[in-house]
Structures are given as structure tokens and as C-alpha cells.
């Protein structure tokens, strides 16, 4: 989903008086920035609203009177929301801890209170919405019908490029970093960072700049090293480094010819000519015929990251919550595109 589509979707849910929204993301600042921009946009939301955030360490913050009230207790925070009389969006950060899972029992008093205030949020004279903002998705069965889940995807190519442009502009002005990138090279650098959060991408660009005092196409490897750390944490995806060349693969000439023809067809410049990017290849054969070898060679030929998805791990029971981890792995692979997803032993 594009950023504009996501922004309009959330705005429409606010306007339609949806009481509870759930955004699952590690990027709190980016999500809060989006919510603030919606809340202040009269064209999008019609009735402008205050954004009031809650953390278990601070209680509510966002306006003067909330600082005075003791709302660190989750129950008192919900009572405060229920009694609040002005248009507002309440963002509850890490509220999933009251919903149970991972060895914790759900707090039934909190869950019951949420169900109690659901109707009052819908019928309030002034619009009020509650947004649960959390890095993980946890929903108690009792609240499944009341909470609307909104996907908050990783940053797009356009968002990462904007961030890189801002960093380049700042460092050009200071004169401390040498920038040596043309438009095509900048595109490759940005695409190498796809699949990272905005903060992770900025950290990767910053590391690339400080390592040798310049930013060039050679820093793609630095970006990919940062990405490798993130991908390892999925538990299922594996970032494969390969120096193999297509010359190392014997035979398979038809496949090699097909791969050479479609090289760089995922670039923006190729889209202008209407060239479709390749979708996938199914390679089958006896052990030792070069299936894995050519998968690694494609990565070197196309200069794209190679992600290995081990189907065996999914069914072996080694990785817990297989379905959720599988979804995360696929989502990361999609966000990392263009990349090569090597599904081994499919």
C-alpha cells in the first residue's frame, strides 16, 4: 500500500468513528508523525483532533492538563479516555503487554474496560479514537471484533530516497563528506536499503559516510552488511554472500541466456520502456546438477541481495510461531525488493 493510500485509509477510519485501531510497527516516530499529520489535516479528517500519547513510564502526554493527572496506570488511562470531552486521538504505546501471550496472562480487567468504553467512543459528541502502537501484534479473543488492524509497511523507495537526499544536502553544506553519486548510483544505494526501517536506513547511510569520508556506489556493500543483521533476526531468512560467477556454472545455457536478457529489468529506467521485471524461476533436478550454484550466481550477475528461505526450518519446529515468522519473512523480502528470494527445497 502506498503511503498516501495508507494515510487516507487511517483518516477515513478516524472519520468513521472506528474506536480502536492497531498499528504494528517498530517505527514509533514515523507512525506518530503520520498520525499527527492526519489529525491536523482538516481536508482529510474534517474535525481536527489533539494527539495524546500514553506510555507506561510517563502516563499521558500531549497537552498541559494530562501532565497533571496520574495516568501511568492503564486502568486510569482508560478512565481518562472515557471522560475526555474534546476531539482527540489517543495513542497507547506498547499496550499489548496487557493482552497476554509469551508467558504473560491477559489482564481481564483492562480488556473488560476496553469493551466498556467501546460504545462510548462511538457515541461521544466529539470524535475520539484509540490507536494501539506496538512492535508486535497481540490481540485477545475478546477484542478481535472491536479492534481494526492497519498495516504499517516498511518505508518505500520514495521515503528512503527523500531521507538520503536530505542527508546528502546536509553533508554537502558542511563540506565534511565527499558525495560521488550519479542518479543511477543513488537509485542502487536506495534500493539496497529497502527492507530496513527509516532509522536503520539512515544509520546505514551514516555509517557508509563516516567509514571513508565519502558516499559512493562502493558503499552498497556497507548498506547490505547492515541489512544482513536485520534479516538474520527473522530466524527463517538467511542473507547469502556469494562471489560465484556465472562462468562457474556448467551447462544450463538456456537459463543463463534468459538471465542475461533480463538483467537490470527491475530498474526505474526499464519501467519507462515498459519492460516487465522477472517474477521467478522454478529449477528442478537431481542433487548436484547446479540448482543452488546458479541461485548464488544470479545474485552476483544481477548485483542484487540473495535471501535464502529455508522451508525445512518452517516445518521442523525449530522456529516458534511459524505462521507469524513466515509472514514477517515474506514481508521483509517484499520490502527488500528488488532482491532474489531463494526458496530452498520447496
UniProtKB/TrEMBL annotation:
Domain of life: Bacteria
Domain ATPase AAA-type core: 281-346
InterPro entries reported for this sequence: AAA_domain_protein (IPR052381), ATPase_AAA_core (IPR003959), P-loop_NTPase (IPR027417)
Family matches, as Pfam families: AAA (PF00004)
Alphabetical keyword list: ATP-binding, Nucleotide-binding
Protein name: AAA family ATPase
Record organism: Metabacillus endolithicus
Amino acid at each position: 500500500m502506498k503511503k498516501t493510500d495508507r494515510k487516507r485509509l487511517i483518516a477515513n477510519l478516524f472519520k468513521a468513528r472506528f474506536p480502536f485501531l492497531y498499528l504494528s510497527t517498530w517505527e514509533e516516530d514515523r507512525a506518530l508523525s503520520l498520525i499527527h499529520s492526519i489529525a491536523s489535516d482538516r481536508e482529510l479528517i474534517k474535525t481536527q483532533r489533539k494527539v495524546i500519547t500514553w506510555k507506561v513510564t510517563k502516563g499521558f502526554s500531549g497537552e498541559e492538563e494530562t501532565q497533571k493527572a496520574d495516568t501511568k496506570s492503564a486502568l486510569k488511562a482508560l478512565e481518562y479516555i472515557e471522560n475526555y470531552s474534546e476531539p482527540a486521538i489517543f495513542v497507547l504505546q506498547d499496550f499489548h503487554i496487557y493482552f497476554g501471550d509469551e508467558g504473560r496472562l491477559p489482564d481481564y480487567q483492562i480488556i473488560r474496560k476496553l469493551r466498556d468504553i467501546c460504545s462510548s467512543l462511538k457515541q461521544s459528541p466529539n470524535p475520539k479514537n484509540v490507536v494501539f502502537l506496538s512492535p508486535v501484534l497481540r490481540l485477545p479473543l475478546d477484542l478481535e471484533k472491536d479492534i481494526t488492524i492497519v498495516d504499517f509497511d516498511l518505508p518505500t523507495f520514495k521515503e528512503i530516497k527523500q531521507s538520503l537526499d536530505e542527508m546528502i544536502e546536509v553533508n554537502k553544506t558542511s563540506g565534511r563528506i565527499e558525495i560521488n553519486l550519479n542518479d543511477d548510483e543513488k537509485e542502487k544505494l536506495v534500493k539496497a536499503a529497502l527492507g530496513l526501517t527509516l532509522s536503520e536506513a539512515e544509520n546505514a547511510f551514516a555509517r557508509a559516510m563516516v567509514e571513508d569520508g565519502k558516499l559512493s556506489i562502493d558503499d552498497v556493500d556497507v548498506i547490505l552488511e547492515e541489512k544482513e543483521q536485520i534479516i538474520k533476526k527473522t530466524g527463517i531468512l538467511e542473507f547469502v554472500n556469494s562471489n560465484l560467477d556465472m562462468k562457474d556454472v556448467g551447462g544450463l545455457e538456456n537459463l543463463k541466456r534468459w538471465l542475461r536478457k533480463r538483467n537490470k529489468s527491475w530498474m526505474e529506467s526499464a519501467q519507462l520502456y515498459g519492460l516487465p521485471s522477472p517474477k521467478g524461476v522454478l529449477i528442478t533436478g537431481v542433487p548436484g546438477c547446479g540448482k543452488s550454484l546458479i541461485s548464488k550466481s544470479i545474485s552476483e550477475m544481477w548485483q542484487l541481495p540473495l535471501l535464502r528461505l529455508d522451508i525445512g526450518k518452517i516445518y521442523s519446529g525449530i522456529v516458534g510461531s511459524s505462521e507469524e515468522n513466515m509472514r514477517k519473512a515474506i514481508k521483509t523480502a517484499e520490502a527488500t525488493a528488488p532482491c532474489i528470494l531463494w526458496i530452498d527445497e520447496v
